[in-house]
Write a structure and sequence with these properties.
Largest sheet: 7 strands, mixed
CATH class of the largest domain: Alpha Beta
Strand content: 25-35%
Structural class: alpha+beta
Number of helices: 5
Order of helices and strands: HEEEHEEEEHEEEHEHEE
Distance between the termini: 62 Å
Helix content: 10-25%
CATH topology of the largest domain: Aminopeptidase
Strand order of the largest sheet: 7-8-9-10-11-6-12
CATH architecture of the largest domain: 3-Layer(aba) Sandwich
Shape: globular
Length: about 280
């Protein structure tokens, strides 16, 4: 085909995932980079292993929970699927621990032949900056976590309310390392009713958006609006920037009520470690 608007066969056409382009090239790219960076930052703070590659970032805390052992693809796998997945799998096989997760911002080839199991396609949601939150239930007190003792309460509450039962017996700071309090990109919020912790949320400030994580409400208080109320301070952690989160299909209506819009669907795979001898 010959035309002035058709590229030469050897000309590279930017698709937005090139590492020499800024994260702000698109909101999907911004979220992906922020999410991957958060996983690495938490992994390092927990004393875990980290593997950085131009195609993915991975962090392994070696705990029983896949939420602390994860890799994020930094763009489409394309023809490199086998090599990339093999490298990530080998990384997790090198040390003991629980299962691990692989997140992709775009659909991937079928990775089951490479030993992974399909988890699903949770919606990535975006809320434009600004707006006014609904008033929280009057009995709910939301506090910004500012000290180690309160962060430990946040950690226990998130483990029980999210829930993450596989982390019930880990020592304090395994899931939420105390050093994160010194990183101004991480903001933690704890919900209290009559002084009793009942919910959590966290904001991780990316380069051009606020990344919302670990929204939880204890099972015995759900249906009272606490989950939405806990989401608001993390959503507005940077009031001048949009906020983004990976939702569940069950939680999606709550976020839509808050003004979040469905942007795309992530693809999530799970891997298991090789059985170790001895």
């Amino acid at each position: 085909m010959s035309s002035g608007w058709v590229a030469d066969p050897d000309e590279h056409l930017a698709n937005g995932w090139e590492r020499d382009l800024p994260s702000s090239d698109s909101l999907l790219r911004a979220y992906t980079d922020a999410f991957a960076g958060m996983i690495v930052d938490v992994g390092r703070a927990a004393g875990g292993r980290v593997l950085e590659d131009e195609r993915f970032l991975a962090a392994d805390a070696g705990t029983p929970s896949a939420y602390t052992n994860a890799a994020v693809l930094l763009g489409p796998l394309g023809e490199s699927a086998t090599g990339v997945v093999s490298r990530i799998t080998s990384f997790f096989h090198e040390a003991p621990g629980g299962p691990w997760l692989l997140f992709s911002p775009v659909p991937t080839p079928d990775l089951r032949p490479l030993g992974l199991g399909a988890v699903g396609h949770p919606p990535l949601m975006l809320r434009p900056s600004g707006g006014t939150p609904r008033e929280p239930p009057p009995e709910l007190e939301i506090v910004r976590v500012a000290d180690v003792e309160t962060l430990q309460t946040f950690e226990r509450t998130a483990i029980e309310a999210y829930p993450l039962p596989e982390l019930a017996d880990v020592h304090a700071g395994t899931f939420m390392p105390h050093s994160l309090l010194d990183d101004d990109r991480f903001l933690f919020f704890l919900g209290l009713v009559e002084g009793r912790p009942i919910g959590t949320s966290m904001a991780h400030l990316g380069a051009s958006m606020s990344h919302v994580e670990y929204v939880s409400a204890s099972p015995n208080v759900r249906g009272r609006g606490y989950g939405e109320a806990m989401t608001w301070p993390a959503t507005l952690a940077d009031a001048d920037a949009p906020s983004m989160l990976i939702a569940s299909d069950l939680g999606r209506p709550t976020y839509e009520r808050m003004g979040y819009l469905p942007l795309a669907r992530f693809t999530v795979w799970a891997g298991a470690r090789a059985k170790r001898k001895g």
